[in-house]
Structures are given as C-alpha cells and as structure tokens.
C-alpha cells in the first residue's frame, strides 16, 4: 500500500454502482493497465496515494520516446490521457480489499477514511520501496548521485569515478556490471565478505577493492564528493551505487491471502494473475526487476488478459439469462 497524498478523503464520482476494474496504484503499470481497459470500454477507477518509487529521480532512461522525461511528467501525461477516456482518478490510499460473496469474483475496495468501491476485478500495482542502509547522507542523495540501477542511471554518470557500496551481497555483480560504464570503479567492501573468486573477478574486470567500513558519504555544495571510511580515509567519487533492500508494498495482496513464493513475493502467472480469482498484481509489487518501460508493458499484458476474463464471465451470464 502506498501512503496518502493528503488527509482529505476524495470526492467519489456519482456513479458508484460499481466498476469493472479498480486499479490500486498509479505508476506506469497501473496507469497502462487502466488505459488498455478504458479503451476496451470498461468502467475503471485508479486509486493512487501519490508516492512513486522513482520520484527522487530527475529523469528516466531507456524508455522509447520518453527517454530523459521526468517520472512526474510521465505520470501527469498518463493521468491526463486516462481522464480523456472517462477513468475515475482518485487521490487516496486503499485501506483493504474485501471479497464480496457470490458466484463470480467481486470486491469492495475500501478507501482509508472513506467509502468502498465495488469492483468485479482488482489490479494491485502498488510498487515497492527501497530500503537503504543506515549510513549518513544516503537517503538525502538517493536518486541523484546515490543510485541503484546502472541501466537507469549509468549513462548519465559514464566515465566518472564511481563507487559501489558493499552493503549487500549484490554489490559484487553490480560492480562488475558498472565497469561497462566507467574505467574507474571502486568497490568499497564495508562489511561485505569477499571470496577469493569475487576478488579474482573484480581484479580481472579492473575494479579496485577498498577495505574498511563506511562511515558516511561526503556532500559539499549539493554534490556528492566521495565516501569517508571509519578510519577517516576519504575515497573521492562522483557517484556511488548500492543494492537496496527491496520491500514490496503488498499488504493488500496478502490481506486477500494471495500465495507467495519462497522469497516472500506474490506469485503470478505471466500476465499478472494471482492465486485469488479476480485479483491481479503488476509492476514492482510482483517483479522487483521491472523498470518503468517493462512495468508499463506488464500493465498492458495484464489488462488484455483481464478483459478476456471479464468477457468470459459476461458470456456465462448471458447464457444463464438466455436459458432462464
């Protein structure tokens, strides 16, 4: 679940007899799912709490026709497109989703401090949050010059002195990958135990290892200047990368008893269908590796399949009426 944008309960549209689909989460996955469903003439609402994961980033990379666009601009454009199709856009937080008894899937989507929206299907696209190590300075620079994804940000810091913080087992592969963007990459070992094989790969790739625990990142004049170790050693760097602890915002899914995999992530099929009939999960809440462009694609794929699911239900209802 996302956090609220504000404490005001949104005004619910007058036509509240029910939606075909309520999408929870207004990032790329949720908005693209809503767009495809709206173009299929489905009645759709999007409930969004307004704190996307990539909000700290100035621009996106690797999204055809949107390369370099700010995350906020993408969402603003998407919301405007949805409004043109009559999608109801609600700035609110969903407290919980409750199944409605009956022969076909249906749900009441309860807004925090407000009413419930009745929906035939629910798409959960609430994303994840990045858990950062508790080192001074990291959170303030996150998405600026303290970074995670080389494919998202590597080009912008190419050929600069880069550091990788050894705060996660994924730091070694990350350092090996970053060497693609810069000849000057340092792995700051911190508390990470490096195997002989790790050290051999890093050396072969030209990545220098700096031993010692990290004290803080050093920032002056609103720019990252390097990393200070516990012994006072300064390691000059212009940007540093780390592997965050990925925490899915999945409380809604597990409140509905959706199945998890061995790592604790919701299980879905290739189009986002969960183990609970009528409930779909797309984007980072289900796939921690999804970038904006792939999350949008996952939202579209889910919408196609979900609409066919609704068509099948519509046909069964029509047959039942014809036989009555």
TrEMBL record:
Pfam families: Pyr_redox_2. It catalyses: [thioredoxin]-dithiol + NADP(+) = [thioredoxin]-disulfide + NADPH + H(+). Residues 19-298 form the FAD/NAD(P)-binding domain. InterPro entries: FAD/NAD-bd_sf, FAD/NAD-binding_dom, Ferredoxin-NADP_redctase_2. Gene3D superfamilies: FAD/NAD(P)-binding domain. Keywords: Flavoprotein, Oxidoreductase. This is NAD(P)/FAD-dependent oxidoreductase. PANTHER family: THIOREDOXIN REDUCTASE 1-RELATED-RELATED. The keyword Transmembrane does not apply.
